[in-house]
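=== Structure Prediction Worksheet ===
Name of assembly: unnamed complex
Input type: mixed (protein and possibly other molecules)
Chain count: two
Listed entries:
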Amino acid sequence: MNTTPARRRPSRARSLAAAAALGLLLSACSVEDPEAPATGGEGGGGTFSIAVGIDPDTFDPAGQTTTTVQNMVDYVVETLVVFDEEGELVGNLAETFETSEDGRTVTLGLRDGVVFHDGTPFDAEAVKFNLERIIDPALTVPLGSPFEVIESVTAVDDTTAEVALSRPSPGFVSALSVTTAGMIAPQSVTADGNTNENYQRPVGTGPYTFGDYTAGESVTVEKFADYWGEEPHYDTVVFRIVPEAATRESLLLSGQVDMMILPPVSDIQALQANEDVEVLLAESDRTIFIALDTNDPLLSDPMVRQALNYAVDKQAIVDNVLFGAGEVMDAPMAPSLAGYCQTGSYDFDPERARQMLADAGAADASLELLTPSGRYVQDQQSAEAIAGYLREVGLDVSVSTSDFPSFLARVNAAPSENTVDMHLLGWAPPYLDADFQMQMFRQATHPPAGLATSFYTNPQVEELLTQADVETDESRREQLYCDASQIIWDDAPWIFLWTQSFPVVWSDDVTGISATPTEKFSAIYARPAN
Amino acid sequence: MRGTAAHIVRTLLLSLITLFGVSILIFLMLRVLPGDPARVLAGLNASEEQVSRLREQLGLDESLLTQYWGFITGVLQGDLGESARTSRPVTAEIAVRIPATLILAVVATVIGSVVGVAAGVIAAVRRNSFVDHAISSVAMMGVSMPVYWLGLLLILLFAVTLGWLPAAGSAEPLSIVLPATTLAAFSTALISRMTRASMLEVLGQDYIRTAEAKGAPPRTVIIKHGLRNAFIPVLTVISLQFGALLGGAVLTETVFGWPGIGRLLVDSIAARDFAVVQGIVLVYAAAFILLNVIVDVLYVVVDPRIRY
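=== Predicted Assembly ===
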């Protein structure tokens, strides 16, 4: 399924001649992979291959940090609940999920007849094992904070599990959709070379079983015969690990993979014009913003911060620097989150910005703008453009960049050591709920404790968010977030920029591919187009 | 030969001191880099407790001396520690990557040496002819073209437009063609220029004229009398290039998704995975030293007059 026969035939003939020349040299080396996609069998369901950019660090669901790796793990390991394409939370391994009146007990009704890849049954004991595992302090669980409210897990009977929470936590059930809370077979943590701390061959309930991982090269998964749900089309799925975006694009255009994520953004328009491929600029929940240090004498004035928002033509940057791969923000969070409401806009108005800066006595202030490079779509380029707009209104802005760990060390420093005036940052809640986004505006998560790097705090916001933390009535909770958003928007601790798009491109020979707003693709049910 | 053996033993002993120095340098360099490995590793969304727990697990809360002692005593027992990022042993991480790096460096060096020496000899023999100028121009391009750019152009031509070769990966036998060619471009150019210069010098010597005068066929004069004597500086360049290819293939490995050690090094630096970076740097240093010893021996083989 990697190349159409018509496209591949000429290459085969040439291949043989050159292969003979190199064969001797290569036969002794181990880089050949018999399960490589292009030489794989075309019979049965065939092979579907996807080019991704990141070499997986761990396949342990509990150890996940990046969505690309989660995306691979999701083929093998499933979660209790999922967000469907409309962004609604629906049951998966748990058919039902109910939160008690007081919000402190979550009862999960589990799907019957589900088995793990090792043949053991998926039951309430397995749920208990997995949830207890991700709150075990001995294990590193990077996305573990939403699960810290778990007090205990009880297996009531085979198909019923009860989770007791230390306090009401309306976002908890949503958090169960994150790969971190994926269900692995309890026995697998001591089998097949796995240990609890070093779990590299995941055994889940998913439509595919974990096959091979060749470091720096590929990950292969194979169809699971006893899968409880709908059977996928392809027998084998190969994730090709190719860090360079332009090379991933070449793999797709030469028919050597069926699908890719994250093409070079400057090529998006050309790909959209190419009739052989489909381009999806999927909505993502990742907001990109310039965090303003509200402890800074100058930036502590909300009028200055609002002025900076008016000074930047965000739409122009999205169009010309991001090549359309983004949506300008109209609230302090992405529209896909529960709790979002359209809040406002800072329309481009340099005259007004200049006036406001003059009124605030900040007319020709000097500011440093720090940006990561290559972490978010066109991050450094956008920062340069933003600095240009700010210079237009009379500010003296210098842009600097560094590698991400150094960047993080600077923006995550305690207020007394923090020297960054403004920095570009992206934030993507791992599940579609406002509570994770709101960490950016709470005192409890000011650096170094968290990444609320503008050191913003407002007693009214704190009050509203504290109420929302425990409000079990969904619509009242959403209203609380909406009210908080309004205050945050007017206080402008950020220059609100855009939610970035997640581009997925595939050959028009295949279909059935979509994406979720958590920057993940859904290609498990990909199939040939005709 | 006795002198040579003693020289090699001496070199190897001295190299132990070098390696010790390298271990201290890389250990300290990593620790003065800004960026907290625990924070990077735990991810942006991790809580402060998780980060400090991780810092403890990684032993980063201990004194530098304690950390270095743990590192160096491990090294002496063949244990390079565990990758913070993947929890796998560093020796295993390096071991799975070395074959890919080695094969790429070997193939590129073979291409570079064969093509470079041949082009250099031809350019020297046909000095100031059209062929000489053509070779010089191409060599100039090879030296100046960034690997990144050349690699992407080759992919566009041979994978996308012509569909002859794989664009990335190492899974198929033909996968090596594009990365090896890209990687060889620079060394081919360098070796050809060095060969030309060295040959020109030798071809001007009296013994060449003598060989020609006594009626030796031109091929014998050029290869046996000329190239053999011109080869010492060329060999030095080739060995240095090979060493550089072992470590410097990062860009080529990235462009072609080649699963070598250079990419592992860059990923590990970006993730502040200290143990892996230290391990790779030590392995590089050891490989360079070994390479130098091998070249020392080769000098003797090429030129029996050399004694240590």
